[in-house]
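Pasting as-is:
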Amino acid sequence: HISRRIRMPSEPFRPELPKETTIDRRMKQFSLPKRHKLCALKAIDALFSRESGAKGALSYPLRIVWKENNVRQKGEPVQFFISIPKKRIRKAVDRVMMRRRVREAYRLNRGEFISPGFTTVVDVAFIYVADEPVCYDRVEQSMRRLLKKAFPKKSSVAIATVGQEAPLSDVSPC
């Protein structure tokens, strides 16, 4: 029997963490943490109630419903949820795929329409209305149109008052 002596280092090993880079800061602006999701059942019911005064728009394959929420005090100014009805898409795999595509389109495009200084508290619902899965390009094109309607920029409002619509990026349909 040989006894081994275990030596404890004077200082614990701590790997050096890399410094935050410009890329890391840019990545944070595209993050979509849980606090951005609308989870409160009362808020969702209020969003879809008849007397709520919610506004809506349709751009195939998505429909958006949004409403200002004067009750909510904490959390992000804009909270959203995504609905992919089982009645429209029967397979769970396809519903999950479309939910991921809609979430990704929102995550990448919300920065153009919802500025960091946005203070109005708004609840938003994205409802999938197509009967079959569609490609990401169509979902993104639809998301851009809907976000433009729900959160118009000052430049978009000025253009809309003249009677012309601001051009969207040319994304070819699938």
